[in-house]
Amino acid sequence: MKLSVKEAADFLGVAKSTLRRWDNEGKLVADRTEGGHRRYPYYSLFS
């Protein structure tokens, strides 16, 4: 199961911009759709 930026941000209780920053810093890696949208694997939110 993969979550959108909004879904993952709501789940973690952080802002969407925080997730994007973490992705850019390599702290939380998102998969990308063919359109370039971030998708966060559910299991990765616990590490």
From TrEMBL:
Residues 2-47 form the HTH merR-type domain. It comes from the Bacteria. Transmembrane segments: none annotated. GO terms for molecular function: DNA binding. InterPro entries: DNA-bd_dom_put_sf (IPR009061), MerR-type_HTH_dom (IPR000551), SinI_DNA-bd (IPR010093). It holds the Pfam family MerR. Coiled coil: none annotated. GO terms for biological process: regulation of DNA-templated transcription. This is Regulatory protein MerR. It comes from Acetohalobium arabaticum (strain ATCC 49924 / DSM 5501 / Z-7288).
